[in-house]
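HUMAN: Would you supply a protein with fold tokens?

ASSISTANT:
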Amino acid sequence: MAGASAVPTALILGHSFVKRLDRNLRAGFDPQANRDFRLQGTVSVRLQGFGGHTVQCGGRAIHVVKDLAPDIILEIGTNDLSHSPPELVGSAIEDLVCLLLNHYFIRVIGVCHVIPRGISFPHAMVFYSKLQFKPVR
């Protein structure tokens, strides 16, 4: 992990969406886009995406976590959501978060769900219809 004087490292981890985002940022696809998300040196940002990545195939991701030892991880995922029941996906995400917190001592973990796949994957709509969002108290 980063020392007291070092800039914290954030790892944005996920499937092909993150892989394409990293490639597009490196290519300078938009003058407004910036690889460090304009955080002006307050955090070092790394993107690591794997095509077809799911929570269950987290082994590749764990190697990146071991090598980089980030302070913060943002897990971005949708691939699981169209193939497994919400209860299994939620449980697998919770297991991964506990592993990252307790074994790899990651300080902050955010789990994001982006780009619903309902149009591309109609069976994903069944998953979304089962979700019940409840406020956190």
